[in-house]
Amino acid sequence: MTLASHPHRFSEIKKRINGISQRMLTLCLRGLERDGLVKRTVYPVVPPHVEYELTPLGHSLTEPVIALGQWAQQHIADIDAARAAFDAAQEKSITLDT
Questions:
Q1: Closest by CA position to 16, among listed 31, 32, 4
Q2: Tens digits of per-residue pLDDT, 51-73?
Q3: Which of 71, 62, 10 is nearest to 37 (CA)?
Q4: pTM of the complete model
């Protein structure tokens, strides 16, 4: 988890999350801030300096999120198989409808 250890600047977070757009990261951070999971601190300097860090509530989610990630890694083959079966059924359904 990117924010678990210490505060990070927006650019640092973006570098650590491969492929995320600036807009999507902004929306995610705002949502997490709104939910009380992330604290945004703006420092009154030029250029602006903003850091994001987990709140105590956010830290309380660290263990469950890590456990979920481990579960997903252990079951990735089953997840991939389910996705392939679903996609094949969808494709077959589209073909039959046309």
A1: 4
A2: 999 999 999 999 999 999 999 99
A3: 62
A4: 0.76
